[in-house]
Design brief:
Belongs to the short-chain dehydrogenases/reductases (SDR) family. This protein is of the alpha/beta class. The protein contains eight helices and seven strands. It binds nicotinamide-adenine-dinucleotide. Nicotinamide-adenine-dinucleotide binds next to helix 1 and helix 6.
């Protein structure tokens, strides 16, 4: 049986850790050719080597870049197209959480930084990838929003603004590009245990962060954190041909928690 991503080229940002790492592994197992982008060269190479060990015949291009730098985004999109001839799917995922604080104390520099990466970065990615996909007349984009992009969580001005912005961009562009055979959706993960969430728990609980985590998940209907692999499966589905008629949608993956906030 043909694998879902055989002969498909997938570009993915934030590939060096967490959700990007898990999605890249899933896509590679299903036959994808990958172009992986991350700011952190070392972790990117580590992930690429891990994938090559698991899927020896995988084709992977690794590109170190900052998604908040428009020229860098333009060039990693061009390089992917040049190397592989097309871009079938784009997981527009790199992001940071930022320092937690009440709005009045949420520094403007921190706000700008979080919005630059999480929102401007997603916009730049869509802008340049959509040029390629429109010319092809096909493609799928998955933007990473968050439960913090559909609900108020608190202490996260920059994160909330950026992730609500990602939801807005997704709906707007999904409406524009559906007619060209391109689907654009967002995922809204709840707390998935990755380096980013570990960082948040440390901000909340310091050395006691594991106990803080246990307390935190008691509020979840499923009483646990999500696993990066679970998000990887959702991303693969949304980038596959099986989900072609899902467009401009925002899909929570949070154990049901966003219905409780
Ligand atoms: P992570 O910290 O494990 O991975 C994020 C990756 O993005 C890292 O490898 C990092 O180096 C890279 N990155 C950061 N800034 C970058 C930049 N400017 N340019 C290029 N790469 C950059 O975090 P994660 O949990 O995998 O988060 C991935 C995405 O999922 C983020 O957008 C995050 O906001 C979102 N998200 C995560 C959760 C969660 O619970 N983990 C929940 C909701 C949304």
């Amino acid at each position: 049986m043909k694998k879902r991503f055989e002969e498909k080229v997938i570009l993915l940002t934030g590939g060096g850790s967490g959700l990007g790492h898990a999605a890249a592994m899933q896509l590679a197992k299903e036959g994808a050719t990958l172009s992986l982008v991350d700011l952190n060269e070392e972790s990117l190479e580590k992930v690429a080597n891990e994938i090559k060990k698991e899927v020896p015949d995988v084709k992977i291009l690794t590109l170190t870049a900052d998604v908040s730098d428009e020229e860098a985004v333009k060039s990693f999109v061009q390089e992917t197209k040049q190397q592989f001839g097309k871009i079938d799917g784009f997981f527009n995922n790199a992001g940071i959480e930022g320092k937690q604080n009440e709005t009045q104390n949420y520094g403007i520099d921190e706000f700008r930084k979080v919005v630059d990466i999480n929102l401007n970065g997603v916009f730049f990615g869509m802008k340049y990838v959509l040029e390629v996909m429109k010319e092809q007349g096909s493609g799928s984009i998955v933007n990473t929003a968050s439960v913090g992009g559909i609900r108020g969580v608190g202490n996260q001005s920059g994160y909330a603004a950026s992730k609500h912005g990602v939801v807005g961009l997704t709906k707007n562009s999904g409406i524009e590009y559906g007619q060209y055979g391109i689907s654009i959706n967002a995922i809204a993960p709840g707390a998935i245990l990755t380096a980013m969430v570990e960082g948040s728990l440390k901000q909340m609980g310091g050395d006691d962060w594991e106990a803080t985590g246990e307390e935190f998940v008691k509020a979840n209907p499923m009483k646990r954190f999500g696993k990066p692999e679970e998000v990887g499966h959702l991303v693969a589905f949304l980038l596959s041909d099986e989900s072609n008629f899902i467009n401009a949608a925002v899909i929570p993956i949070d154990g049901g928690q966003s219905n409780k906030y």
